[in-house]
Design goal:
The structure holds two protein chains of two kinds. By secondary structure, chain A is α/β, with parallel strands linked by helices. Chain A has four domains: 10-207, Pyruvate-ferredoxin oxidoreductase, PFOR, domain III (Pyruvate-ferredoxin Oxidoreductase, domain 3, 3-Layer(aba) Sandwich), CATH 3.40.920; 212-394, Thiamin diphosphate (ThDP)-binding fold, Pyr/PP domains (Rossmann fold); 402-470, no CATH class; 477-589, Rossmann fold (3-Layer(aba) Sandwich). Chain A is 37% helix and 22% strand. In chain B, 34% of the residues lie in helices and 15% in strands. Chain B is built from eleven helices and nine strands. In chain B, a hairpin with a 5-residue loop joins β5 and β6. In chain B, strands 2-1-3-4-8-7-9 form a seven-stranded mixed β-sheet, with helices on both faces. A two-stranded antiparallel sheet of chain B has the order 5-6. By secondary structure, chain B is of the alpha/beta class. The chains are: A alpha/beta, B alpha/beta.
Chain lengths: 590, 304
């Protein structure tokens, strides 16, 4: 790389690179390339990006945390900031760690700060890109220039990186790839002064295929593996990319994904496909989940197996459409009218999106009720690298069971879990079933009988109690007993785990559990809680009127344990390690 | 209906012949004298004629008096929520090309709370038959104004008479792009059966508005189209009306009350079911018989 520096590269295990520019600069593309490269070079990666919720773009960042070991968070602070504009520099200089580096476009950034030992290194990204590509390219391609520079500084596998870029641009006009590579090479060769070079230690993930992608893409793949072939949805950020993927992928499998006229139609079409005997999925983000609530209550009452995905975003109302929040938990569990039991799950990271989708399909069928998956904006859009799933182990062949049903068939037996006979099933007793949202007897006849309503309410609730007893207790990470137990769900998984690593290294006795099954909760959590002096529930929602976040409320209500406390925030961002560590230290001191 | 079976009735010799007796389920909860009884009887008759395999018949409804229909037909059925019968039936129709989907409901379900779905199921030309039993009033909730209640109609929500202009169902359906649109009357059983049969045999979205009197809350509403009560039942003469001409159909829909009856519009246009299947077929043709598991395996490998 740098021609002025011939010393050997510094070895490192982790690097956090923050790219700050405008959304049209293509920083997401190069962030994606770097993340994919991590997967192909046995490294871990986690990305983080902000997207302006406007149509025409605006300031935007993409942060990449690369690591030779386990990467559990997108990084509290950046080792390197790449600033494309003065506004990027001004807004993100504070995100650089003490002694870190800022690479800035010297044609754009003119006012520099000198503090905390941060090295400012000016490179004329725009001008050098124009010179490299020539002609009328303007500043297009400066993202590739920057990636070339990063590749050189961190001694990344240039050949593999070029391969990834070629594959991406290969579908486009030849000149696009040529110009991209010209810019990349220019950035790779550009002298960056006395920065030196770095080299990652060998990655821990040897001898295995690694995939790198975002949560929504992998969730879609998980749904297909789970046997989903039908469903319907309505576009909303950040859910939409799942429905887009299913719309284009399902025809390969003989299935259909329908863009509905609204959220009500979407959930209704999906219930229609489920009633017809298929495993079907609908999904949305917060506001859309609210609109689906009446139909979800129906699905609980009529005992229809169904997967519903809610990619949570900041609320209430239109809220913060492109920011993360975990404020739909109570809506997911209790959002409908009436006592309408359903199952609620949440993936812990991108990789888990695949497995949670399969789990949702299995539970929906086994318990014949709606299963809501609570993903979130952070998991949906960030890229991680992970082990390729073994389809031989996880693939579920979809089946339509229209085998004739015996004479004594009852759609709603009190002593068993409902197994519907979908249309096309011959009823050997000659009596055909009507699926219904009215309270009903075992044969599906409407019934206002007081005793029957109690018995059917019991039936719908008791299957969830049976599930809660079957669920394994979550493993405790860190100390199995001690002073503070952290409890998390969804995207807090990585930051909590990393916080435990740091707190333990400081000598604290702390542990953590992560809940994937949010409703019903696994039975017996109290046995884990009993081994800690304090329990701190970490979630990205508001503490509300009573001072507890949404999961903490449920835990307190179900376990009546006064040592359960909340660590909540709603700033539109995932938890930083230092936020959790500070809160635990405060709890330890109290 | 399914193209595979729409024109060929059941051929399974082991299949028990469909009779009214076999098709009869719970006794209807409707009030004595309700027009819906005749609609149910006509539906039985048409099914007796078409002889579809019993297990392939699916009745779908939302909420309302007429939406209790599925309980009264011994077939696979689903009684869903208010206004969403059509999207539910869309899910059944698109995912199960082997079954015959019938949707029943009233004017509230179809034109008010479910109005948006009617437009979209129609324009998408979903393969199913929808019978709207229109009584110009909300009956199940005991006499509130409906979207088809005429101006001046006194109800519990319009005690001095309705001031809102009612929907013209035929014009709305024409505008929405339905491919089979007809109007009939519960007191005209023979005509009703003819219209139902044509609707059922139509490949695509077929919709029938069937005037069905609510004797409890809007007694005498359809006397002007009931000959034995001195009204005129004016059937469209198809030798004079081109059913493929939507402008002509709009003009027929403008005929003042009690209006015209019969088939207003009928046109062949590929159903969404067929168009989706074409896409599936062309997509799968490129995959050259690869197993589904391998399709996903290859897709995942692209993320390496």
């Amino acid at each position: 790389m740098s021609t002025s520096n011939s010393s050997s590269p510094t070895s490192l295990r982790n690097a956090v690179i923050r790219l700050a520019g405008n959304s049209q600069d293509g920083i997401q593309s190069i962030g994606g390339f770097l993340a994919r490269l991590a997967g192909r070079t046995q490294k871990d990666v986690m990305t983080y990006m902000t997207i302006p919720s406007t149509i025409s773009g605006g300031p935007s960042i993409f942060q990449v945390h690369l690591g030779s070991g386990e990467v559990l968070d997108p990084g509290d602070e950046a080792d390197v900031l790449v600033a494309f504009y003065q506004h990027s520099y001004d807004a993100h200089f504070s995100s650089i760690r003490d002694g870190g580096v800022c690479l800035y476009d010297s044609g754009e950034v003119t006012e520099l700060k000198t503090e905390r030992g941060i090295k400012n290194i000016g490179i004329p990204f725009t001008q050098a890109t124009i010179e490299a590509i020539g002609g009328s390219a303007r500043d297009r391609g400066k993202n590739m220039f920057v990636m070339g520079t990063i590749c050189a500084v961190y001694q990344l596998d240039k050949e593999k990186l070029v391969g990834i870029v070629s594959r991406q641009f290969g579908k486009k006009d030849e000149s696009v790839l040529r110009n991209a590579m010209l810019a990349f090479d220019a950035g790779y060769a550009y002298p960056v002064g006395d920065l030196g070079t770095f080299e990652f230690e060998e990655g821990i993930h040897k001898d295995e295929h690694r995939l790198s992608t975002d949560g929504n893409t992998l969730m879609s793949m998980g749904l297909i593996a789970a046997g989903v072939r039908y469903g319907s949805a309505y576009p909303i950020t950040p859910w939409s990319s799942i429905m887009e993927t299913l719309r284009s992928e399902l025809p390969k499998y003989g299935g259909i994904y329908v863009q509905a006229e609204d959220e009500l139609a979407a959930v209704s079409m999906t219930i229609g496909a489920a009633f017809a005997g298929h495993l079907a999925v609908t999904g949305s983000s917060g506001p859309g989940l609210s609109l689906k609530m009446e139909a979800l209550s129906y699905a609980s009452m009529a005992e229809i197996p169904l997967i519903v995905i809610n990619v949570q975003r900041g609320g209430p109302s239109t809220g913060l459409p492109t920011s993360v929040e975990q404020s739909d938990l109570l809506q997911a569990i209790y959002g409908s009218h009436g006592d309408a039991p359903r199952i609620v799950l949440s993936p812990k990271d991108v990789e888990d999106c695949f497995y949670i989708a399969i789990e949702a399909g299995r539970l929906a069928r086994e318990y014949s009720c709606p299963v809501i998956i609570l993903s979130d904006q952070a998991i949906s859009s960030r890229i991680e690298a992970f082990t390729e799933p073994n389809l031989d182990e996880w693939w579920i062949e979809p089946e339509l069971d229209i085998a004739p049903r015996p004479e004594d068939f009852k759609p709603y037996p009190l002593d068993q879990i409902t197994r519907h006979a979908p249309p096309g099933t011959k009823m050997l007793g000659g009596k055909y079933p009507t699926v219904t949202g009215l309270e009903h007897d075992e044969w599906g006849h409407p019934s206002g009988n007081a005793k029957m309503h109690q018995q059917m309410t019991d039936k719908r609730r008791n299957k969830l109690i049976a599930l809660s007893k079957k669920l394994p207790l979550p493993e405790v990470y860190g100390d199995a007993e001690g002073d503070v137990l952290l409890v998390g769900w969804g995207c807090t998984y990585g930051p909590i785990k990393e916080s435990i690593n740091r707190l333990q290294s400081e000598g604290h006795k702390v542990g953590a559990i992560h809940l994937r099954n949010l409703h019903p909760l696994p039975a017996g959590l109290d046995t884990i809680f009993a081994k800690f002096k304090k329990v701190l529930v970490v979630e990205i929602n508001d503490v509300g009127v009573y001072g507890y976040g949404q999961l903490a409320m449920i835990l307190r209500a179900s376990l009546a344990d006064p040592k359960i406390e909340s660590l909540c925030k709603t700033d539109g961002l995932t938890f930083r390690i230092r936020e959790i560590v500070t809160a635990v230290e405060k709890t330890l001191a109290s | 209906m399914s193209t595979a079976t729409a024109t060929e009735p059941a051929s399974d010799p082991a299949q028990e012949k469909l009779t009214k007796k076999i098709l009869t389920a719970d006794h209807p909860t409707w009030c004595p004298g309700c027009g819906d009884f005749a609609v149910l009887a006509a539906f039985y008759k048409v099914l007796e004629k078409l002889q579809y395999p019993h297990e392939k018949i699916v009745c779908v409804a939302g909420i309302g008096c007429s939406s209790r229909f599925p309980y009264f037909v011994n077939s696979h059925g689903i009684h869903f929520i208010h206004g969403r019968a059509l999207p539910l039936a869309t899910g059944v129709s698109l995912s199960r090309p082997d079954v015959h989907v019938f949707v029943f409901g009233g004017d509230g379900d179809g034109f008010s709370i479910g109005g948006n779905h009617l437009n979209h199921a129609a324009r998408k030309n979903i393969r199913l038959t929808y019978v709207i039993m229109d009584n110009y009033v909300y009956g199940l909730t005991k006499k509130q104004t409906s979207p088809t209640s005429p101006e001046g109609f006194k109800s519990k929500t319009d005690p001095t008479g309705s001031i809102d202009r009612p929907i013209n169902p035929m014009k709305q359906l024409l505008a929405s792009g339905a491919t089979f649109i007809a109007r009939t009357h519960a007191a005209q059983v023979k005509h009703m059966m003819e219209v139902f049969e044509r609707a059922i045999l139509h490949d695509g979205f077929s919709v029938v508005e069937c005037l069905s009197e609510c004797v409890m809350f809007y007694n005498g509403s359809f006397d002007d189209s009931t000959p034995r009560k001195g009204g005129v039942y004016d059937i469209i003469d198809e030798s004079q009306h081109d059913v493929g001409d939507d402008i002509a159909a709009f003009k027929l829909a403008d005929v003042p009350t009690p209006g015209k009856f019969g088939v207003f519009y009928e046109v062949d246009r590929p159903s969404k079911n067929e168009l989706e299947q074409r896409w599936i077929d062309s997509t799968q043709a490129k995959l050259a018989g690869k197993s589904q598991k391998d399709i996903l395996r290859d897709r995942l490998a692209m993320m390496r």
